[in-house]
Design brief:
The protein is of the alpha+beta class and about 500 residues long. It is built from 6 helices and 20 strands.
């Protein structure tokens, strides 16, 4: 009797151990799978030194800037490059230009997230001739982080222009692009990633007036009405999401920068307003629930030269801002001394970058905040200028039916347009969401199945032991009392 009680306890113990082993193995696989799933997504941390999520152009050539103009890498019009800008020093690159060719070079500095930057930190870019003379100075040659003092992508653009009013840098030949970093001594010592893009614009077939147009109406257009539509922005110029007339919603985490793009044709006028939604978390620092520059919005033209910017403070309640009234797009705007007018010189894609200051997290928590963009493109398209040469740079300086459709669908530059709907990124996010739900359900099913298997195998062990204990009442010749069940101990077979 005592022996049977002992074997019964052993059977129950074996069943419990087997079940526990099954559960442990299932949980281990679940944890490993969860780590794999989570590893595929970026974290929300913005600690100093975290790489920026800025998406560089696909296939961009990685180049190294030279410390003098004698060894600068050749930059080709229509191409995008990735380089590095050091903390101290300057970097040279090279252009080969025709006598009758306007060239624009943009440089986007991409510091790591969380790095220390000051109001005056930034970069400067210029185009120089062989004598070191700066061609066509622009207000857009410098870009600074400004009052937000938060690390984010910033862009400066330089040019070499030709025309009756241009007296220097007029011949064909080699020109040099100089990129310099403007740094405060107390700022981060880390180098910045750099994206360079070159655009070329032919001269006009026939020289026209050099007098800027008189717009007359400086009032902002009537803001759009209707329902707010959700459309997540991209992480760079190259992934900017298309927008058309309407009210568009997104959610930004503190420290994030989102990019959007709007097609604006010749004769059309763009108006942009932004709203930052209220926070329902309250402040995390007593009596300090105020960020003086919380939301920063910047508009750039098709060659990435800045048109205008705006920002707003934030105290946890809804806040609004808007760009100043802009003129209709016209070729002759380039002759206006005001930079926000001069920059409205091209038809094409205009880029909107929206940044939420990381200080918002310290004072209101890391929860994403709602951002609403109000986009208005006013006026009917007009014929564009007649450029010299056989080909017109349609991709850079015009709006096609394909562009209009891309804005309606919310496509980015690199979006997959093989299927309809709300654009490539919307489909990707839907797939990610479905994949995440499917993965979670699958893991739960697997965990339940493994638990059930472990229990059934433990029960089978107990039954075999009970059967063996019944037959062992009459010992077989030559069999020791303690050897009949030795093989039944240990983990279930197959595990």
């Amino acid at each position: 009797m005592g022996r049977r009680l002992t074997e019964g306890r052993a059977a129950r113990g074996g069943r419990g151990r087997a079940a526990r082993r099954g559960r442990r193995r299932a949980l281990a696989v679940l944890a490993a799978t969860s780590m794999c799933v989570v590893a595929g997504f970026p974290t929300q941390a913005t600690a100093a030194g975290t790489p920026s999520p800025y998406a560089f152009a696909e296939g961009a050539e990685v180049i190294e800037g030279a410390t003098s103009n004698s060894g600068g890498h050749l930059l080709v019009a229509g191409s995008t490059y990735k380089s590095v800008l050091p903390r101290v020093g300057q970097r040279f690159y090279r252009l080969e230009l025709k006598a009758k060719e306007n060239a624009y070079v943009s440089a986007t500095a991409v510091p790591k997230l969380g790095t220390k930057v000051s109001y005056a930190d930034g970069l400067k870019v210029s185009v120089q001739d062989a004598n070191g003379y700066t061609c066509s100075p622009l207000d857009t040659e410098k870009a600074r982080f400004g009052s937000a003092e938060s690390a984010r992508p910033i862009t400066a653009t330089a040019s070499r222009r030709v025309g009756t009013d241009e007296k220097s840098c007029t011949g064909a030949g080699t020109y040099y692009v100089l990129v310099e970093r403007i740094s405060d001594p107390e700022s981060s010592q880390e180098e910045w990633d750099l994206e360079l893009r070159v655009a070329s614009e032919p001269v006009l077939r026939l020289a026209g007036t050099t007098t800027p147009p008189r717009t007359g109406d400086s009032a902002s257009p009537e803001p759009p009405a209707g329902a707010r539509k959700v459309r997540a922005g991209g992480t760079s110029f190259n992934k900017a999401r298309g927008l058309e007339n309407g009210i568009w919603g997104d959610r930004l985490e503190p420290g994030e920068t989102r990019f959007y793009r709007v097609p604006v044709d010749w004769g059309q006028r763009l108006s942009v307003g932004a709203e930052l939604g209220g926070s329902d978390t309250g402040t995390t620092e007593r009596d300090q629930g105020f960020v003086p520059t919380a939301l920063v919005m910047s508009l750039t033209n098709p060659v990435r030269a800045e048109v205008d910017d705006a920002d707003t403070a934030y105290d946890g309640k809804q806040s609004v801002t808007a760009l100043r009234p802009l003129p209709p797009v016209a070729y002759e705007n380039r002759y206006d001394p005001a930079s926000k007018v001069s920059a409205m010189r091209f038809a094409g894609w205009y880029y909107l970058a929206v940044h939420l200051n990381p200080d918002v997290a310290r004072k209101f928590g890391r929860a994403p905040l709602d951002v609403t963009l109000r986009i208005t493109v006013e006026g009917s398209p007009r014929p564009g200028p007649s450029y010299a040469g056989a080909s017109v740079p349609a991709d850079e300086f015009s709006v096609t039916e394909r562009d209009t459709e891309a804005a309606r669908r919310g496509e980015s530059n690199a979006a997959d347009t093989s299927t309809g709907g709300g654009g490539g990124d919307d489909r990707v996010m839907a797939a990610v969401a479905a994949g995440g739900i499917g993965t979670g359900m699958g893991l739960l099913v697997i965990l339940g199945a493994w638990t059930l298997i472990a229990r059934r195998r433990a029960a089978a062990v107990a039954l075999r032991r009970a059967a063996s204990s019944s037959s062992s009442a009459v010992p077989r010749a030559g069999a020791g009392a303690g050897t009949a069940h030795a093989a039944e101990f240990g983990p279930p077979r197959g595990w």
